[in-house]
Amino acid sequence: MSNKRGRFGPYGGQFVPETVMPALIELEEKYEELKKDDSFQQELHAYFNEYAGRPTRLYFAKQLTEHYGRGKIYLKREDLLHTGAHKINNALGQALLARRMGKKQIVAETGAGQHGVACATVAALFGMKCKVFMGAEDIERQALNVFRMRLLGTDVVPVTSGTGTLKDATSEAIRYWATHVSDTHYIIGSVVGPHPYPMIVRDFQAVIGEEVKQEVTQLVDAKLRYLVACVGGGSNAMGLFYAFRHEKDVQKLGVEAAGRGLSTSAHAASLTLGSPGILHGAFSYLLQDEDGQVIPAYSVSAGLDYPGVGPEHSYFKDSGIASYHAVTDEAALAAFERLAKIEGIIPALESSHALAYLEELMPKTQIGEVVVVCLSGRGDKDVQHVANIMKEGLSCHA
Question: Is residue 317 flagged as an active site residue?
Fold first, then answer.
């Protein structure tokens, strides 16, 4: 889907300072070499299986299915992976790539902290230095993950510029990388950024959909009709959708954060309400004003309040390969509580947005149709944040 210029239709590209171009060229050339290298692929999949815990299970959510009384709901349990989220797939792949390029240090950005923890984990595993930039606002919301990163030996750098969230942390990580490219590899955590990052992250996350494709063949008297995943930058959604991109009878549904409502300015619905522009080195849908200035995003979920989205998702939207929707904080919090009470699983707030969309989707399904929801991460990191919200009166009900 990506051509040699790193484009997905009109989206993607490389809008970066000249100082960064040699590192991007080196990365692209090495990745193109290694993705065809059997020893690299064997090493990657050995770590996937023996360290990360792949393949993850496709779990039949019986009680949740009975709750809606229509199609069958299955959860792709990426929350069961080591470190608790799908982010470990990409972190392992890129760390192995960095090691083959002779890099000694990893730099990364993080919002909810799951990508930061994954990077800190692989850095410890492979004996590499690690520096993670994180917005001051997100550090407060995700204190547990900050402690985990520091425990793993990573330097967590607070970012106080802008809104102190993921967008600002990403900008600072890029600035740092631009001045340390000789010995440092930048692990971008989602399918965003300049080429070749969207392609590389997608390839390492594509294992999610490839496994689903195999696992659904074992289901009896059931037809896969819907794939549902949350979208911030969009890595777990692209990981789920990519293997099914040519299958028109399987609907791919991405769910963005509507925050306090699409009629307000407090949301992160880049594909739903944004327009094409340039952010962090790529051309894609983003939230911007009439002058092209990026508008701050908002979501109760630290992992979704990013004002842009991966360029391949922009292509998927325009071409009709996938459709994108948005749910509010209130709906996501209700879904967070609903899954905990009905299935005994506490989901990440990011994943709760995908679960919340079931309220709209399930009445349209037929008995026997299969709905797969990507449970991209577990909610341990969000429990204190949700508890604080409920104290403030923003209670949720299953």
Answer: no
Residue 158, pLDDT above cutoff 80: yes
Catalytic option among 72, 87, 167, 252: 87
Instruction: Read off the pTM.
Output: 0.94
Q: Which residues does 361 contact at the CB level (< 8 Å), separation at least 6?
A: 226, 228, 253, 371
Is 109 catalytic? The answer is yes
Rounded CA gap, 9 and 171, in Å?
A: 25
- Residue 383 CB burial class (10 angstroms; 0-12, 13-18, ≥19): middle
Instruction: Report the side by side order of strands in the sheet with 223-230.
Output: 58-60, 72-77, 369-375, 223-230, 251-259, 323-328
Quote the CA–CA distance of 50 and 212 in Å, as a whole number.
Answer: 19
pLDDT digits (tens, 9 = 90+) for 356-396: 999 999 999 998 899 999 999 999 989 988 998 887 655 44
Pick the catalytic residue: 2, 72, 76, 109? 109
* Mean per-residue pLDDT, 296-320: 95
